[in-house]
Give the backbone structure.
Amino acid sequence: MLRFAPSPTGEMHIGNLRVAIFNYMVAKQRHERFIIRIEDTDKARNIVGKDTEIMQILEKFALTHDSVLHQSENLHIHQNFAIRLLEEGKAFVCTCTHEELEAERESAKAQKVAYRYSGKCIDVDKKELAALKENNIPFVVRLKKPDHDIIYHDLIKGDIVTSPNEVDSFVILRADATPTYNFACACDDMLSGVDFIIRGEDHLSNTPKQIHIKNLLGYEIETTYAHLPIILNDEDKKMSKRDAVISVKWLFEQGFIPDAIANYLLLLGYNKVPKEIFTLPEALEWYRLEDISKSAARFDIDKLRFINREHLKMMDDKTLSTLFGFADEDIGKLAKLYLEEASTISELESKIKPIFSPKKFEGEWAEQMRTMEKIIAEAPMIGTFDEFKSHIMEKSGLKGENFFKPLRLLLTGAEHGPELGDIYPLIKSYILEIAS
Ligand code: GLU
Ligand code: ZN
């Protein structure tokens, strides 16, 4: 069982999408279930509607899932698990105040050592719990740190060993009785029977904590982990919220298409591809998660542009037409003529739109354009481009530059572009609308 567990706290970025794609892919390859868990327990950071947006993005990429769960639905289960751990003496109640903990953190910082919980409350008897509640004394629940190293094998990073001190006696239930991320995540993975976890390497230090939680709760199913290397921006820095490029929404706005984005994300840090341009269903046949590079990958928008163009070339003409509001496959063919100079849907649109917009009869060629417009209006049903050309040449008496420049402006609204002979057959059924 695999899962994608996004937090509805911000824009879905390419790093998240990459995680979703990998989880989906591995689920398909292993013929296992793939579930979505919206991690919405951080009420202060949740953004209304983000969950729906995430689901819509997954749908655009055809990352089909078996079920969806909102983590908050499991709140009572999380709390019950925490109580069970308290009762079993595996967790304890901590009443250290914010100030105390802050002071300890400061002193660790001053001594240049990593902060660890002091262990002060580790012996607080659970019998004191009732008294704390009665007297309204705030407390959190901490898990006792493990008494042995937590060792796991990561498919990409190799063996990871974490000492008990690094795991530390960390908080699992906050003072408001809500679970922390690590606790909710581990409980839910356990409840759903997730046994293959793929996520970003920013979670490397969470994994031993989650393993410790699952161990203490008695979860026996062995879990495989794969932590994907981070994606760097073009300055070789970790992508941050400031990099607009990271958001999937931004990529869509720029006119990148899902097939190309998925292709690009699968290529990042992977050099065993049998071919560079492929679709996700194709990749299912040969992609091996464990062959992905250990080191960070760099986001290269030019490469994405190249891949996008290749996918647009492969797109069915009719489907491409519909992106520009036409049902007729000729407009898809027309758009493809522009793929020499355009790589995205929006760039193509900036070429197609002027063709169908009213022309500007101004400047150097205005007069010739008027002449041609009239000739076309009188006899719009001309067959081939050669026939069309000769007809206008004959009627207007125009030749050479005097003929071709205004004709191109009249038909395309632009001074340059693909051969008119290639364009004409695709637009001739719209000629009256276009040449005006
Ligand atoms: N909700 C976490 C995040 O968006 C992911 C949790 C996980 O994959 O374990 O970073
Ligand atoms: Zn304490």
Q: What stands out?
A: The CA atoms of residues 269 and 293 lie 5 Å apart.
